[in-house]
Amino acid sequence: MFSESFVVFDEYCRDYDEWYVRNHYVWLSECLCLKSLGVSGLVLDVGVGTGAFAGCVDGAVIGVDPALKALTVAAERGVTPVSAFGEHLPFRDSVFDWALLVVTICFLSNPLAALQEVHRVLRPGGFIAVCFVPKDSEWGRYYVMKVWKRESIFYKYARFYSVREVLNLLFSSGFRFAEFTSTLCRSPRSPPALEYPIKGLWGCGFVCVKSVKP
């Protein structure tokens, strides 16, 4: 994770957490998208932050993040907190059943190294879900505009990726593609509304790429 970004997430973790309260339908739509993947077992959440998505999966969640204040909030939500960077995971090989990177990959200084580490700690046959806002989606352009207007203290440190770029990173890390699940297909300027996940790519603003470690 970029050093500047985790300092900001640490200092303003409550503000970041409150964003999900103010944007409840966005959070709930993303939560349902994640839940539809069938995450279970021993789960590693890389860049867990305040644990906003911990309740969206089954199983025991171990959350990794360098932001200590955010980890404190995540622990209140039942996450087992571990202070670490995604590029250097303090776990043995082949431990986890699932790994999650939910709106995390855009804040990593070396996403390839982080995905290689996740590959190492996942058991053979284990799954990873990389959930993100594609840069070429309407939501991606919306967030980039907020950065240009200096309306976000968080996303100014983000690097947005296309679906193809994320797939290339996963393939380069040794993963095999399984499926796409999408949500937030309405415009970010539309009135707030709950959206249910759909299988496949539809140009939506939130995409989960599910892949497997062979």
Characterise this structure.
About 35% of the residues lie in helices and about 25% in strands. The chain is α/β, with parallel strands linked by helices and about 210 residues long. It has one domain (about 5-210): Rossmann fold (3-Layer(aba) Sandwich). Strand 4, helix 5 (about 110-120) and strand 5 form a beta-alpha-beta unit. The longest helix is centred in the first third of the chain and has 12 residues, at about 25-35. The two termini are about 25 Å apart. The model has no long low-confidence stretch (mean pLDDT about 95).
Number of strands: 8
Class in CATH?
A: Alpha Beta
Radius of gyration: 16 Å
Portion of residues in beta strands equals 15-25%
Number of domains: 1
The portion of residues assigned to helices is 25-40%
Return the structural class.
alpha/beta
Provide the spatial order of strands within the biggest beta sheet.
Answer: 3-2-1-4-5-8-6-7
Q: Number of helical runs?
A: 7
Q: What is the average of the pLDDT values? A: 93
CATH architecture: 3-Layer(aba) Sandwich
Low-confidence stretches: none
